[in-house]
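Lab meeting prep.
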Amino acid sequence: MTSPTASVVRRTTAALVLVLSLASCSGGDDSDTSASTATASAAADVSASETTGTEPTASTTPGTVSSRLGQPGATLVPAPGTTASGIPSNTSPTPVSTAPPGPVARRRSAAPGGYTLDTTGTFTSDIGGEQPIDSESSLRVDPAVGEDQHSSLSGDQGSTEQTVRFSSTSIDLVQLKLTTPAFVKEFRPVKPVQLLPQPPTVGRTWKWTIVSTDDATTASLEAKVARTETIVIGGEKVVCTVVTSTLTLSGDIQAVSKMQTWVADRYQLTVKEHAVTTGTVQNVNFTSDTTSVMRSTKPTG
């Protein structure tokens, strides 16, 4: 699904997908591109989360990143497919549900089906100058299973897929996979990390850090429920919760994305986003400034 701010991670990294693909097509070093396409390995995945605000959130755990990164208060978590002691396991760190929709998912999941988003903006790099962006992407939301909901977003430059989990106090990220012409990246935090507190009270803040399954990319998020706002989507007035966030990627991918995300409270959909991303890929500096808007809150198919 693209439930409340699942896109805080998804759409920031989706914007980066476009950036990396354009940079790659512009003539990056072949050896760098080859290294970027490495798929998920059994290296350790590290996750930590912290929530602050008017009330605690039970689904997140205070802390910082792994001691491997040299930060205090760190917790090292097992690699995908292993137990805390490193012994192979038959399940992923966060198993995806297979049961019928649970009570929370029935209330909060997005309507399954297809949605279309239009993205406009600009991409500027050292080697290509400024280029316009005018693209269409397709979102496919699957029916909820247990308290989880899976969705996929595809466009010209690749795809992202994710699974989110619903609880009485939070909507959390279970899994995120990015597939592009330049690389494949997957994040599977052992403990799901928060995408949006429930209820999304104005002023609530949260942050977390996760590491990709190939141990090469670190993603750190800081987010805040900024305000409520009514916007027009497909001729319909839609009441939204607006989340502001900053996502920082480090390691083999260097980028910072500052976002505003409009989440339709009634439909549990991210209906609009504005993202400004800056960074360096394959020694190329870039800036991406994009706005994505959903055509309609009503699914097709």
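Slide two material, second protein:
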Amino acid sequence: MPFGERFQSKHDLHTHVPEKRSEKSSLHGLEFSLQTFGLALLQHKSGRAHNQNVSISPLSVFFALAMTENGASGETKTAMRKALALPPDASAEVLNLSAAAVMRSLLSHGEAELEIANAPWADVKSTISPDFVSVCQNIYDAAVQTIDLTHPSSADTINA
């Protein structure tokens, strides 16, 4: 079933009901992947932090991986898609448009402030695809940054 048509039933976690392809159905498909990814991430983190509280934002991690997946290829892209719980037939376009729809939906509620601070960083010697830069800026509201990764202060710059 195409990613844009996946829909997670509120009553049965394993039932998929096809919907007419639309932003709404793409949103449901992405929500299913977000839920699956988020639960797996929380389970992994809490399993490593015995007798400790775990606080994590699966949405932020999901968006960071989904954004950088646009610049990946081969085995790396396959592994990222698997980690994100994306169906094999999910196109990059549908993933990106669905992510943008989720962000618009979250921002439209107005009950809470949403700020995502994801930004891809690359070494100054790297070649970065203009299409990748465009997707990062237009879909994920993230500016691609370059830095000399051999410089000792680069980690401090990125973390700041």
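Talking points for slide two:
The CA atoms of residues 30 and 127 lie 30 Å apart.
Strands lie at 121-123, 145-147.
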